[in-house]
Amino acid sequence: MSEKLCKSMSLLWGAGSPPCWRVMITLEEKRLQGYKRKLLSFQKGEHKSQEVLELNPRGQLPAFRHGDVVVNESTAACLYLENRFQSQGNRLIPDSPAEQALVFQRMMEGLTLTDRLNSVIYYDLLVPEEERHDSTLKRSKETLSTELQLWEGYLQNAPTWLGRSPWQMWSFIQTLRLLSAGRFPKLAKYYSLLKERPSIKASWPPQWMSSRQGYGVLKDL
Amino acid sequence: MSEKLCKSMSLLWGAGSPPCWRVMITLEEKRLQGYKRKLLSFQKGEHKSQEVLELNPRGQLPAFRHGDVVVNESTAACLYLENRFQSQGNRLIPDSPAEQALVFQRMMEGLTLTDRLNSVIYYDLLVPEEERHDSTLKRSKETLSTELQLWEGYLQNAPTWLGRSPWQMWSFIQTLRLLSAGRFPKLAKYYSLLKERPSIKASWPPQWMSSRQGYGVLKDL
């Protein structure tokens, strides 16, 4: 990768955002480390700043540019980077049709997992107090628990896709360490493998999990 | 496409399901018309039958198989089919990196649109009566309206991606016809173009929109 190409890449990101991290890990995996990046603060509302809105009309992070190409949705950015730099760094989408199908399948299912996780850990943040119900949160927890058991089964039956394109798992790595290893032993083992992956170590956001606010809700899962 | 290959494909589907339709349209676009398909009834709970669960542990439709490859998540199935049959039928992912980025971006954003649509039109179905709030539904409608305005803008500024990979729009085609053409003229025009697309005409589910139940909620959007 020439230095020039990397300089034509820029990423606006926020700490603790799985979509941002997904793109950063992919950049590491593709050995595109020289890009320009800028950390913005969600707390200060910097994701709604003019700088972001010019790239991303949704006012969300990541906001990613490569030359004239702007691609902000994180999975879309990962697909773009993998296709554009196929022969560089690690291949994240394998050639074999069967393996490819599995990677796409888990990549998309990973978004469902993230949604189900978010509806539990961000319940108080997303729902105004007067609209909250214990029964809603209880149901969301049950749905998340079922979802995690499904992934536990995936890891039991077909661990080969793991090393290839673990986009789907990166997005909830921060939660895995808070789950009971006893109930989800395969997920716990996978988490311990992911933690040691160079791309993940290199991009681990410094602020990530400095606060555990909101995660107590997972204790009884 | 040999008849033999098509015979190795099977699809379990449900009428009125945008994910099912997305896969069926892609099969049409790739000229894979000879596959085996079976219509199941959501009302009768057939999506939770053993036949489905063997292919799709989520008990959801579509359930799609191509030989030994099982890929059920609809966007994953579309990506798989496009990659596997790249030189057959219509190219749904263009070669140019810039166009490709745009197709991936809109494909993924289309899922957000679908989610926002579903949270309005299926509100009563998804939320038990004792947990419903007018304020929640009102906020969801505002979010949907903002989302649709965003797409209206996309159509204004960059209509070239439309013909290439309109997966993102197919998933809400049924709603476009119920929206006020006055407020969303670009979306209305796009809908009228999509309706005439051969792949869409060929796969239009017979039961689609025979009932308008739930769609009255969009009238005041």
UniProtKB/TrEMBL annotation, chains A, B:
PROSITE patterns: GST_NTER. Transmembrane segments: none annotated. It comes from the Eukaryota. Residues 7-89 form the GST N-terminal domain. PANTHER family: GLUTATHIONE S-TRANSFERASE GSTA, GLUTATHIONE S-TRANSFERASE-RELATED. Belongs to the GST superfamily. This is Glutathione S-transferase rho.
